[in-house]
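REQUEST FORM: STRUCTURE PREDICTION
Request ID: SP-0412
Submitted by: Lab K.M.
Chain count: 1
Length (residues): 182
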Amino acid sequence: MDRFSAYLLVRRHLKRPRSRNQALAVEAIMEELAALLDQPREAWGVLGLLSQMDLEYADQNPRARGQTASQQARLEGLDEAAARHLERWCRRLSPEPEAAPAHALEPVEHALLLATLLAEEALEARARDHETLSAQDLDLRRQRGDVLGDGIDAALSELRLPVRAAAELAERAVARIAQDLR
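STATUS: Completed
RESULT:
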C-alpha cells in the first residue's frame, strides 16, 4: 500500500484533529527510525500511519487496538506481513496480562511501539506552550513503572537507542511535520 492510499484510509477513520496529528507524528517518527536503522523509510512510515487508524475506535474498545487497523488495512490492500506487524505491536500497549513479551516482537514492531509513545509525548510537550520533548521528560516518562513506561524501556533497549537520541528523533520528526498539524 502506498502512502497516499494509507493517508486516505486514516482520514476516513480519524475524525478528530488530535487523532490525525497523532497519526502524522507516528508516521514521521517511523520514517526517522527507519532512516536510523537502515530500513525502508516509506514502508515504515506507512505502517506508522496505519497503526493509528483505529485510535478513536480503541477509545471505546481498547482490546481491539491494532486488530481493527490491520483488518481494515488488509481489506484496502496492505500485504499480509505488514498487517501482522500491526496486529502484534499493539499487544505491548495493552494493559491486559496476556500482552506480548517484548522479546517476541520484531524490530519494526518495537519501532511502532516506540513511535506511538514518542508521538504522544512529543505532541503533549508541544501542547504545553510549544515546549519540546526533552530527554529528561522522556526519561521521567519511562520510569513511571506502568505498561507504557515499560514499553518505552523495552523498545529503546531492543532498538539500541539511547533516551536522548529518541527524544531528539521525535522532536526532529514532529518539527518536520509541524505545518501539517492542526
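NOTES: Residues 3-180 form a domain with the Hypothetical protein af1432 fold (CATH 1.10.3210).
Reviewed by: T.R.
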